Amino acid sequence: MAQLSSIMDTNAFRPDAPGTAADERTLAMTRRRAELLGPAYRLFYSHPVHLVRGEGSHVWDADGRRYLDVYNNVVSLGHCHPAVVEAVHRQMQVLNTHTRYLHEAILRYAEDLLVTMPTPSEGQRVGHVMFQCTGSESNDLAIRVARAATGHQGVIVTTEAYHGATDLTAQVSPALGSGVVIGDFVRLVAAPDPYREGEGAAARFVADVVAAAADLDAAGLGVAALLVDSIFSSDGVQPGPAGALQGAVDAVHAAGGLFVADEVQPGFARTGEAFWGFARHTPDADVVTTGKPMGNGIPVAGMAARPDVLAAFAERFPYFNTFGGNPVSIAAAQAVLDTLRAEDLQGRALKLGGRLLEELRGLGARHEAVGDVRGAGLFVGLELVTDRATRTPDRALALRVVDELRERGVLTSVAGPGGNVLKLRPALTFAEADIDWLVGALDDTLTALRA
């Protein structure tokens, strides 16, 4: 039997599981969904939520009940942000077509996006961007570009990484479970875990990257890329101290490979300390991939690369993506970027994220089950353990907490190899009152489950 996916199955609805809280109306809808969409899809919670409306950090179900959304980083500006709604509506009334015609909007957006990239320690700055519809497509293209640039095939990723759902990206996504075969060109390394490894976490990670590169060389594959989500979201939210990834980036460069920064989750100001998650650690990304939050719910993604890196791929392969970078999606992306700057949402993420961490750590002082609270900006992980001394993951408690929070009107889920880390990714427009709601619900939940 295939191992369950750490990101798809840990908090998945199972209609036949004992203790399901779903009412008959909800069960009927889930059965209809399975009949029409097939059995591969997953739903959250033992009592699935039927959402019909959203605004800011809040969503409403079919019965009119309001929930606090602390998980959906797709809508980074919050649900139905007026700037995005207006931009998409305005462009849809004028033109929507593909990228084989000239269009000013895509050029303006590319200029605006590329100027956010940091200046590297040496060599060319990331200077070209190619557009797709999803982060999976972006990471797929990034691997192809890295292979063309280096002449190597191997890819190094973390043991719980998720980088996409195409055939190629699924092979570098162990978080999908053992039902998906990891490619023979892939080497897995454990993400840094300062909670368990202390100050040695970064050095151990570097050593593992060096060993993985050597193994790929020995296999005749060489190293094309170290592909990393710099906040290690699926690995349990491991932001680490700023600068912690520089050694691993240097190591992969020394081995002849590239550093591909998967910014689908930590990018677009979410970490607060920098516009891009990788820039907390290093300016030396060779390729940067983006996705979900780029269009606040409108499908648009991008792969940006240094010109010298992209050259070999461009010489061999023409590129075309019918819907990637279409005018409507670009209008949404431009509205997101404009709003991030106009409202200083990076500064807001840093400020509110700091307060959220402080409040959650205070919560940890009152509840023994809270082993660790960590994060950067508005991307926070709260780890639940059976024992603080042994730091043993408490998956069962984490799932009970997630379900109980749902009943208290707070939506989130879990991550990490132990399935015991609450992954908290609210909209960047999260409010002070939303923090109070979240922390209060967590406090009440942990108190109730301890009784």
UniProtKB/TrEMBL annotation:
<dbReference type="GO" id="GO:0008483">
    <property type="term" value="F:transaminase activity"/>
</dbReference>
<keyword id="KW-0663">Pyridoxal phosphate</keyword>
<feature type="region of interest" description="Disordered">
    <location>
        <begin position="1"/>
        <end position="20"/>
    </location>
</feature>
<dbReference type="InterPro" id="IPR015421">
    <property type="entry name" value="PyrdxlP-dep_Trfase_major"/>
</dbReference>
<dbReference type="InterPro" id="IPR049704">
    <property type="entry name" value="Aminotrans_3_PPA_site"/>
</dbReference>
<keyword id="KW-0032">Aminotransferase</keyword>
<dbReference type="InterPro" id="IPR015422">
    <property type="entry name" value="PyrdxlP-dep_Trfase_small"/>
</dbReference>
<dbReference type="InterPro" id="IPR015424">
    <property type="entry name" value="PyrdxlP-dep_Trfase"/>
</dbReference>
<dbReference type="GO" id="GO:0030170">
    <property type="term" value="F:pyridoxal phosphate binding"/>
</dbReference>
<dbReference type="Pfam" id="PF00202">
    <property type="entry name" value="Aminotran_3"/>
</dbReference>
<dbReference type="InterPro" id="IPR005814">
    <property type="entry name" value="Aminotrans_3"/>
</dbReference>
<keyword id="KW-0808">Transferase</keyword>
<protein>
    <submittedName>
        <fullName>4-aminobutyrate aminotransferase</fullName>
    </submittedName>
</protein>
<comment type="similarity">
    <text>Belongs to the class-III pyridoxal-phosphate-dependent aminotransferase family.</text>
</comment>
